[in-house]
Amino acid sequence: MNVLDLIGNTPLVTLDAVLGKNPPVRILAKAELYNPSGSVKDRAAKGMILEGVNAGKLDRDKTVIDATSGNTGISYAMLGAHFGFKVRLYIPANANKERKYMLRAYGAEIVETDPLESSDGAFLAAKDEHAKNPERYFFPDQYNNPVNPQVHYETTAVEILAQTEGRITHFISSMGTSGTFMGTAKRLKEEDGRVKCVSIQPDSPLHGIEGTKHMASTIRPGIYQRDLIDSEIQVSTEEAYRFTRLLARTTGILAGISSGANVAGALKLAKVLPRGSLIVTVLADSGTRYLSDEIFKDNR
User: Fold this and answer.
1) If 0-12 CB within 10 Å is exposed, 13-18 middle and 19+ buried, where does residue 140 land?
2) Are strands 278-283 and 26-31 parallel, antiparallel or unpaired?
3) What pLDDT sits at residue 298?
4) Helix-then-strand count for the chain, H and E
5) Which residues, 6 or more positions from 66, have their beta carbon under 8 angstroms from its beta carbon?
6) Residue 295: what pLDDT?
7) 109-113 and 196-202 as β-strands: parallel, antiparallel, unpaired?
8) What are the pLDDT digits (tens) for 248-269?
9) Which residues of 257-276 are buried (b: 16+ CB within 10 A; e: fewer)?
10) What is the pLDDT of residue 299?
11) DSSP symbols for 216-244
């Protein structure tokens, strides 16, 4: 067994402690923080890297290059260390120190971009460097690579269906590249047309929900498919922070900020659903990469 074998097949955990006693609706969460580098992005990164190798587009003479807000980059860096590939990542300069430490620990090169341009600026910088020197790089382009959602279509959704024994009624998640949502939603809908797929959106373009895009004000990923979204729920940064802390203190699961947003959105959804509904959401990454952020400095 190696690090590739540890990716996927993550547990589905109950959030009953957050809901309270005898909840009329169940919420379960795919615990993607148990992937080897600590996030759901291990799935897509594995798929894109293997596709590059198998198609002859990636070998040890080339450097993997892409933009990241942290998680996918950490996954690339882990896989680069495993395969022996060089990895160069463009990341906003205001990304926190834990993520930068992890990238460097795996041996990746970091290029910091203008924090005011967020992940969009990092993407444009990586795209520009690849265009200048295409022979030097393999550019997975996580925002536009169809392998990203396809991996979730083939794995994440299939695991959810098996783990819920087909009883899932609603899937809800925030979106960054949108790969997790799009691939999972497509497969769930194909398998059972009654399943509703709900997207979580930050309530403002100027939000602090790390890894999550405000789709109305950002460069929309090429893999984004609006027709797979049945409805939308808005979550504030404050709600995401509060439920991230609540998740740690009521379930013992230390997850990241987008996971808190997902739990907050799932609870809002639960309030309007009939008794017996089964919601599945995603705990996208580990909270250990956010310990220096303001979120865990508040003891309330």
Assistant:
1) buried
2) parallel
3) 62
4) 10, 10
5) 72, 73, 76, 89, 90, 126, 139, 140, 141, 142
6) 84
7) unpaired
8) 999 999 999 999 999 999 999 9
9) bbbbbbbbbbbbbbeeeeee
10) 55
11) GGSPPPTT--GGG--EEEEE-HHHHHHHH
Indicate if 41-138 has the same CATH topology as 3-39+151-296. Answer: yes
Backbone φ and ψ for 199, nearest 5 degrees, come out as -95, 145
User: Which two structure tokens, joined as six digits, stand for 226?
Assistant: 């609006």
What mean pLDDT comes out for the span 91-120?
92
3-class state of residue 113 by DSSP: strand
Q: Percent of the chain, pLDDT > 90?
A: 85
pLDDT computed for residue 159 by the predictor: 98
Domain 3-39+151-296 CATH assignment equals 3.40.50.300: no
Summarised one tens digit per residue, pLDDT across range 44-101 is: 999 999 999 999 999 999 999 999 988 999 999 999 999 999 999 999 998 889 999 9
Tell me how far apart the alpha carbons of residues 83 and 136 are, in angstroms, rounded to a whole number.
17
Q: Which residues are catalytic?
A: 41, 258
Helix (H, G, I), strand (E, B) or coil at 110: strand
Per-residue pLDDT at 124 exceeds 80: yes
Domain boundaries, the chain: 3-39+151-296, 41-138
The mean pLDDT of 104-124, rounded to a whole number, is 93
C-beta of residue 197 within 8 angstroms of C-beta of residue 157:
no
3-state SS of 108-173? Answer: CEEEEECHHHHHHHHHHHHHHHHHHCCCCEECCCCCCCCHHHHHHHHHHHHHHHHHCCCCCCEEEE
The encoded tokens of residue 23 equal 């909840």
Domain 41-138 class, CATH top level: alpha beta
